[in-house]
Amino acid sequence: MATKTRAPKPETPPALRSTSQIPLRSGKPWQTDADTRTGRIPMALPHPTAPDASFRPSAFSGEAVPFGVTAFREGHDIIGVHVRLTSPSGAESLHRLSPLGDGFDRWRTLIAPLEEGVWQFRFEAFADEFLTWEHAADLKIAAGVDAPLMREMGARLFERAASEKGRGAADVRALTVAAAALRDETQTDESALIVVRDPSLAALFRDRPLQSLLTVGETRELLVERERAGVGAWYEFFPRSEGAKRLKDGTIKSGTFRTATKRLPAVAAMGFDVLYLPPIHPIGEVNRKGPNNTLTAGPGDPGSPWAIGSSAGGHDAVHPDLGTLADFRAFVRAARAEGLEVALDLALQAAPDHPWVSAHPEWFTTLPDGSIAYAENPPKKYQDIYPINFDNDPAGIRAEVLRIVRHWIAQGVKIFRVDNPHTKPLQFWEWLIGTVKDEHPDVVFLAEAFTRPAPLLGLAQAGFQQSYSYFTWRNTKAELEEFLTWISGDTADIMRPNLFVNTPDILTEYLQYGGRPAYKIRAALAATGGASYGVYAGYELYENVARPGSEENIDNEKYEYKLRDWAAADAADATLAPYLTRLNEIRRAHPALRQLRGLSLHWSDDDAILVYSKHLDGALTETGQSDTILVVANVDPHSTRQTMIHLDSTVWGIPRGADYVVEDLITGAEWTWNQDAFVRLDAFHEPVHILHVKESR
Amino acid sequence: MATKTRAPKPETPPALRSTSQIPLRSGKPWQTDADTRTGRIPMALPHPTAPDASFRPSAFSGEAVPFGVTAFREGHDIIGVHVRLTSPSGAESLHRLSPLGDGFDRWRTLIAPLEEGVWQFRFEAFADEFLTWEHAADLKIAAGVDAPLMREMGARLFERAASEKGRGAADVRALTVAAAALRDETQTDESALIVVRDPSLAALFRDRPLQSLLTVGETRELLVERERAGVGAWYEFFPRSEGAKRLKDGTIKSGTFRTATKRLPAVAAMGFDVLYLPPIHPIGEVNRKGPNNTLTAGPGDPGSPWAIGSSAGGHDAVHPDLGTLADFRAFVRAARAEGLEVALDLALQAAPDHPWVSAHPEWFTTLPDGSIAYAENPPKKYQDIYPINFDNDPAGIRAEVLRIVRHWIAQGVKIFRVDNPHTKPLQFWEWLIGTVKDEHPDVVFLAEAFTRPAPLLGLAQAGFQQSYSYFTWRNTKAELEEFLTWISGDTADIMRPNLFVNTPDILTEYLQYGGRPAYKIRAALAATGGASYGVYAGYELYENVARPGSEENIDNEKYEYKLRDWAAADAADATLAPYLTRLNEIRRAHPALRQLRGLSLHWSDDDAILVYSKHLDGALTETGQSDTILVVANVDPHSTRQTMIHLDSTVWGIPRGADYVVEDLITGAEWTWNQDAFVRLDAFHEPVHILHVKESR
User: Fold this and answer.
1) Domain check: are B624 and B516 in the same one?
2) Of residues B341, B419, B543, B557, which has the active-site annotation?
3) Does the pLDDT at position A630 exceed 60?
4) Do the Cβ atoms of A37 and B44 come within 8 Å?
5) Is B632:B606 a contact under the CB 8 Å cutoff?
6) Do B454 and B425 contact (CB within 8 A), yes or no?
7) Is residue A583 located within the same domain as residue A600?
8) Within this chain, do residues B94 and B200 fall inside the same structural domain, yes or no?
9) How many CB atoms lie within 10 A of CB B426?
């Protein structure tokens, strides 16, 4: 007879990491919970949650998500709270929440889901009979009140626990011995108190509490997406500029996907994860803009890539100057080989000569005079662009945009940076992103939503995985403290900000007038303050001259080719590239920096020294090692600041008053610090400490 | 042939008052709204709302309730937002919301529902075509851009408006003339601009906007209860003390309902609305407490009324010393004749000799030694009280408590002050209050919930109309500012606090050590800071001696009879009664003080001078007159304070910089004030200005 050999079970990757996982158990909900909205043990304000609970909150794989709920019961008895998770593939797990102890009856635990997809979770609250008894027995036996009664009640509790299914033999023995000791009348109350206070017995109830009045909350959902939905270092360049050449006649020959490919190793060497390209489509010739946004383009002016469409094609075409669709695919492959993922722009608007205009005039607004309405912000007009009117033929427009997105997905693109999404109907995005994600769950959309908080959060809630943020306009310590609190707080249940330091549209006064220190400061804050950040090419060359009266670069790359001499800048050491490279190295080495949450502000006595830390518990990291980064930044780019700072090390698990070592990951310097430390930060030398916090040796 | 005479239609009382009611219209929702959770015009965060949206928010009849929603659309076009209300009797009305203009896309209006019952409301957002055109036409015609086009678009808009159903003839004429003027090529663009900016034309669109993309939000509910659910001045006395007499042998003869009836005119004369009686039931004899909470009662000691039940009966009985059930009914009638509503205590616990204990031992907790568990807060025990165990026989306990509540309703009681509701299951209260209100919608429950915010708000959300509040422990200016903001803000959608200044359980340090000024200050703040407040008898006599180490009066009335010589105090002018009387007069004369909301904090330069105002728009008052009260309080009872205060009169509808007159309703003094005013408040004279703000003559 042949022996059957079983194939070894394939290793299932863990579905999650948790600070508080306990053995699974089932439980019968309490009987009176059926006829009231209130459960036997009331629970309220569960999170993660979207502001509108009919939407799903979201997270990225590996994100340490706080699961929390407000729970309390009448009177003095002690309760416990668990959260039960079901992974997308159906694996169930149970986790213990801890009370925050802030008087608001809030309970919380940190769990990092790894498996992508829709998770289910529900909170379960219960009367914790052991803890209730322990608390009363401790006080009453010590006070000489009801000692025999408390001892008998304890003995019964221990016996019940010993008889529960799933207890190990050693535990059963310990519980039985304890029950006997409490009942043993020859033993004094003092020795009974030792049993009451025995931490090893308490530990037996920590993971397997004696539950009663079990109350089960509503099942809710959390969408977990791939890590890049929340984490990444982005770099933006115009492929037409990379490899563009000035010809002898003074005109410039456009770069192509092939020439731009040569720049990929340098971008990858800086450690970026995503390469974002402005629109790569044919550019309109009608009303094309000239340099510096002038109304008349010369013959050699390439026009704005956002004025999409010409006789050469529309949103599904590649600009002939850049090459062919095959060239684009080759570029995407080359980028991938360098570890770079390509993100494309999705700008839903048309140049007047876009093929849509003649084929589908109903997708635009026709005015009483028969003309098509330009984009405008009255009285300003943008004559190179027709905005889409989404209300004339919603179904037709939906189908066409979906076709285009599918087309680029077929070319290997999985990330879209969406231009001005807040000028299109929010319900359109909910539909588009939902539909695309049903087919391709790994597609990521970044919203260029430089708008008010309500539409910004609305876009995030409707499905955008990432949002540009207000970061560029948050420059003072007070502004940054508020901003960092906002992005790492409640909004993190739906919104993952991408902290771009600059864009072709944004060169802030801080950068215009802050000199090279400003560039360093902003890069360091962006790379460590959120989980995603971005840099638009030229930042590393400190390009800081604005068009007069505007917040944009002069000779803006939107309207012309930009010939940058990377090699000369490297040779002259006139580049921030090494600093950016180091920032990205630090991000890769430190999982705490690949988290949006886990951020704590600390105090400094100087109004320009900003101090914050990011911490990730070892239970939530791949290595099992806790990770703590402390950032101390002089946000004044014009001076040296020195001050005392005051640190709450307890948020890193280091007891108040204990020494610890901090290593400056930029300079390599090390110091031993405690609650209070002195710092001196010279904006012209190193304006920012990025410190790795290590336990004292 | 007989002539039929029609009876005159009975006057229907108005269902509501509104700052923004407009003509009713129907509207067809926009077509794409069916397949996304996001509407064509996104709306979020509607209110009023309970924290848990599965519960109903609530209000009281006449309360000026802010109805609001966050609404925005893509791009620059202007939107409008309405709220559609349906009264309990089915009357529909439409109201225009105004943008708050704070950058958060919030819209709001104030509506005071009058009709009691469950109201429905939903928000409707739409593209406002007139305002969008007006904004663009104004800018563009003035800038010489697209003037003919803007004029033609305006003409078409006016024609569409003129053709709408329901427009009056004069309006149609004005719109037609305007359309012609815009189209008239002999007229200059300057004169066209006059049409664009014509306020009378704009007014025609204010109440009847040209709507498109109409988006209809979810229908939600608001429970409106009788005014006394939110508004009232309460007085508490122990009937056994009123008319109690010391006999020649030194013992005291209990007061009765008959003797207590004699005190009613004085309570009514002070202007109180509700008279609350501690439990009136038989008091347990087993383990009865003696004076000052001692464990042994003497033969003449009456015991705590909260230790309910003896051989004389339980929760449905009247203490024999007080009289009969008929005497109680007569007392309730006598109170009603004086304008006082009687509130009874509902304390769900039992003395050891309560009839429940023998009839239903399963309603209590039996310990392993066979005894019944006393109430306790380990290691403290309360041997005169058995707490109910609600989990052994939930159905039996529910039925019995419902029987008792119905019994007292049958005796004429419509208000219950519930003792320690946070020590009973919250779901029990949701069930009890819901069941009672289904039968008797005018019954009001006040929660004695001196507990943490989560259970406090949970009780309010579950149905309690009123809650004792943290007021007694909020004494500094900073504490009071936070407290007043909290009670008049978001929590007002579910919670109506009752600002008791003292109770038999609470004599705060502020009162113990603040002397007579403290009593005046706290009464003035309580009477004006919320909408309901309360006073426990003896406050007006400045009873301020505490039992050492406790926050209660010495010789607490809970455990003994209290013989107060009201007449002597009046004669000696050693009473706060005239001040309380004046406070209640002011409350009756000023509808702004019968509102929980409409409160604004103002600035003072002194850290003990608290400044707040309450304002009610004339559209929301019975008389049609706006009402504004400004309170300036020195909360330091030990000194005279003088300072500048800084007032934002715009919240009262008085332009910044305008003069206005304030009349001190306590002293009669009048001043003309502006943004900044000087105040001097002598704690020993009049520590609080209660000012009626009047337009300058």
Assistant:
1) no
2) B419
3) yes
4) no
5) no
6) no
7) no
8) no
9) 24
